[in-house]
Amino acid sequence: MHTSGHISFNTNTLELVDRIIILRINTDEMQVETLLDAPVEQARLLMSDAATGKSCITMRKLINPPVKPRILLNVKEAIWRNYKLIELENGTIEVFLNDGLVTPSKPYLRDIAKELGISIFNGNGNPFNTRQLGSMLIKELSE
User: Fold this and answer.
1) Amino acid 50: pLDDT
2) Does 61 or 115 have the greater pLDDT score?
3) Which of 10, 55, 101, 118 could staple 113 via S-S, CB 3.0–4.6 A?
């Protein structure tokens, strides 16, 4: 679904309108969606004025794409004390403390590395990023 574009209204005739209804044909789901069904006063709050004598409502204000949870496989994992470190198939590192996901992960990974006596710096003296440090810790804890 595209969220780009806008709907324009003539500001000279907008005072003659009681209600604004904006529909969209969703060809993926084969249905007509109601994006807006509101009195003009309420719709005006979504409008921005253009220099051309028109008011516009951008599609982004009307469409809230559903957030789909990503289902990724665990590639590697390790447990250390109350921590569970998981590397997902996309390389993301998740850290769980007492079975609860903690974010951001990096400070927790640094604390674990410190307690294990593992450097958080690479050969060039730069700190490892979250994925590098997490992967290294999982490897170390799995041995």
Assistant:
1) 66
2) 115
3) 118
